[in-house]
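Troubleshooting entry. The earlier prediction with inosinic acid gave an output that would not parse, so I re-checked the input for stray whitespace and re-submitted. Clean input:
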Amino acid sequence: MPTAKRQTQKPGGTAATGTERTKVLLTGAKIQKRIREMGLSIRKDFPDEPLLLVGVLKGAVLFLADLARQIPGEVTFDFIAVSSYGKDSKSSGQVKLNKDLDSSIDGKTVIVVEDILDTGLTLRYLLSVLQQRKPKNLRVAVLLDKVERRLTDVTADYIGFPIPNEFVVGYGLDYAERYRNLPDVRILSLPGGSH
Ligand code: IMP
Ligand code: MG
């Protein structure tokens, strides 16, 4: 059975696991500063409303936890899990609901909280499912936006950082379930350069 190699931290912000290499794109401090602004801007748009944050598992967990603490007033959480399927899951846009919300969103002000907007196909699916359930308002907050990769015209209402077309990990985002625990967002390069 393969064992995960220990992650090593090198000077200059480079971390390596085996032959995978990562390089800091956004520091934890920069992320936290931006999330403070996002939290206030969400509350400014809905000054008197209870807000339901809907986190998309698992990538958005860290972002949701930090964002929630920066939104003053009444805030509740729920979670949903989806996965892509189909032969070419990246471009088919076929999305499966793996875990549904615990409660109804009828009449509620809902903020979908996602880690990253890439092709936009996942979010397009999620928004169509949630919209049918008659929320009072439906908005989207994403930490990262890979603008160049968009295959559909879906947009987020609150965007942490537009980023270049690179595969990123950390702060909730994974590569084969690893790296989610990193406090910063890093660009991952694999041997052979597939990412
Ligand atoms: P979309 O449907 O292509 O927008 O896919 C969005 C989902 O793909 C995100 O919620 C992530 O789970 C995953 N994803 C897209 N880009 C990256 C990346 O650079 N690193 C890690 N996960 C990513
Ligand atoms: Mg995700």
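This one parsed fine. The longest helix spans residues 28-45.
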